[in-house]
Amino acid sequence: MIMILIIIISCMPETSSDHNTEHLVAARLSSHGLRYTAARRLVVGCLAASPGPLSAADLCSTVAEVVPLSSLYRTLGVLESAGVLAREHGNNGIARYELAEWLTGHHHHLVCTNCGEVQDVVIDAETEMKVGSLIDHIGDAGGYVVRGHRIDIEGRCSTCAKG
Amino acid sequence: MIMILIIIISCMPETSSDHNTEHLVAARLSSHGLRYTAARRLVVGCLAASPGPLSAADLCSTVAEVVPLSSLYRTLGVLESAGVLAREHGNNGIARYELAEWLTGHHHHLVCTNCGEVQDVVIDAETEMKVGSLIDHIGDAGGYVVRGHRIDIEGRCSTCAKG
DNA sequence: TTCCTTGCAAACGATTTGCATTGGA
DNA sequence: TCCAATGCAAATCGTTTGCAAGGAA
User: Fold this and answer.
1) How does A108-144 read in b/e, with b if 16+ C-beta sit within 10 Å?
2) Chain B: which residues have CB within 8 Å of chain A?
3) For residue B154, what are the β-bridge partners?
């Protein structure tokens, strides 16, 4: 089992920033009195390597051999409440998880209305600032104390647009 | 039972535009070979009168005496697939329904991160155009054929901000 | 008569949880 | 040793569906 784990981990793409992510997550968990176990590393690694948020089922297809479904959910729950992960719900009601923005940076989502794929997009700083300040004004006008925003851009991904 | 229905309907706020909505919905359903029954009128009426999307449970608390839960879900399903309603999922995974944008106009949502309330907001046309064109560019750059967008403004509603 | 609609109860599926066990610091 | 983490099975809960009865055109 440990060997399987090692194989899976060693097969995962790894960038230099991943090392930093690992370190930050470890520190965060430790400061919450939580351990950074193999299963948790595996989940964080998968999410760090993914171009967009993943559902429990998505993750399960990668980690099922080492992490049973119920443990996967528990892992996701722990990581979410520690602020390491963010959860969101697509239009089908299924939860998807991604690394929290303090780890990945602020970004938005391209959502394919055909195949359901979700892809991260980063907006250039200037545009983000423009959009952000417009949005903050709108929130204020509605009597809200604005804390943030989510933008989902809906359309057809390059694959589905061809069909 | 019919009397209860009449009482509930007659208690609902009704604006001049609601009459138009009724008419448009009736036409849409009819063109799909569907009937605009009392239960469906009731649901459409509730949603038209609401300042934001409602969950099945929200609706149920209003209509439970006349529409059992399973029928409510069926009603919502039929109205959605006829394009009368749009479904969305809050961060808790529970489905919320609202009238489709061709009935209400394009709008966005203020989401209270504390109490979960969702409120519609309309952005003035000029701002919407600016934001919209920025968003379309971003989608294009990501290889998407952009069809629309959703903006959720997150913060604390005026009630929760006081606490 | 035909077909849409309804209601009840049962089924589903994603997610959560109780409990006993394992394992790391 | 102590407490967090795990695995299994069972429970939850929002939502869907099969089937038989009701109702409008």
Assistant:
1) bbbbbbeeebbbbbebeeeebeebbebbbebbeebeb
2) 87-95, 108, 110, 112-113, 119, 121, 123, 127, 130-131, 134-135, 138-139, 141-158, 161
3) A148, B111
Name the residue range of residue A19's domain: 1-104
The CATH number of the domain where A99 resides is what?
1.10.10.10
| Biggest CA pair distance of chain A | 57
Q: How many domains does chain A have?
A: 2
| Per-residue pLDDT tens over the stretch A129-150 | 988 898 899 999 989 999 999 9
Question: Domain boundary at B75, B104, B133, which?
Answer: B104
- Report whether B138 contacts A121 (CB < 8 A): yes
Which nucleotides in chain C lie less than 7 Å from some protein C-beta? Answer: 3-10, 14-18, 24-25
Kindly report the CATH number assigned to the domain that includes residue B122: 3.30.1490.190
- Let me know whether A97 and A112 are in one domain: no
Q: Are A66 and A122 within one domain? A: no
Is B119 in contact with B51 (CB distance < 8 Å)?
yes
Task: Evaluate if the CB of A42 falls below 7 Å from strand D.
Answer: no
Q: What is the pLDDT of residues B120-144, one digit of tens each?
A: 999 889 889 988 898 899 999 989 9
Please give the model's pTM, rounded to 2 decimal places: 0.88
